[in-house]
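Researcher: Please predict.
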Amino acid sequence: PMKTLGRTGLSISAVSIGTGGGQAPNVLQYGIKRGINYLHTSTGYANGKAIENLGKAIAGQRDKVVIGLKITWDVKDDGAMDAALKTLGVECADVAFFNIHSAAEVGQAKYREGAERWKKAGKFKFLGLTSHSETKACMLAALEQGIYDVLMPSFNIGMLDDFKPVFDKAAAQ
């Protein structure tokens, strides 16, 4: 099944593939052929192999996928952004995710400035936030900022009751 990703209007598969394990291109292509269109990667996954494999997997079929790119480098490093997009073989990512693990850091001006610069340059279409520490607080802080289009928290179903206010607030926005 397909779902609309928040306020982006992007239609994504209910099941996605994260490339943290550095999956081989044929594994990623298998998922794409079966309708999985949302793929998430980072230059830091599997020592850079994950983003390379995703680039190989999507070659010639950019129109079939929605790409989430986790930014793990300094927000002022335009060269790292260009290198990541080149490795993927794309002009821009659909969603660029800042990887922030402190609620106090979410609102720092450097993120807004970097996002505005990269978005204006056509490096990505929508801005997201991912977090693995202080996750609930980071997500709430991101909602307060109003610049994030997508939230991708580290989450499991056992956290549902605690995160319900976050999800309700995000849905309202």
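Model: Residues 52 and 87 are 6 Å apart (CA to CA).
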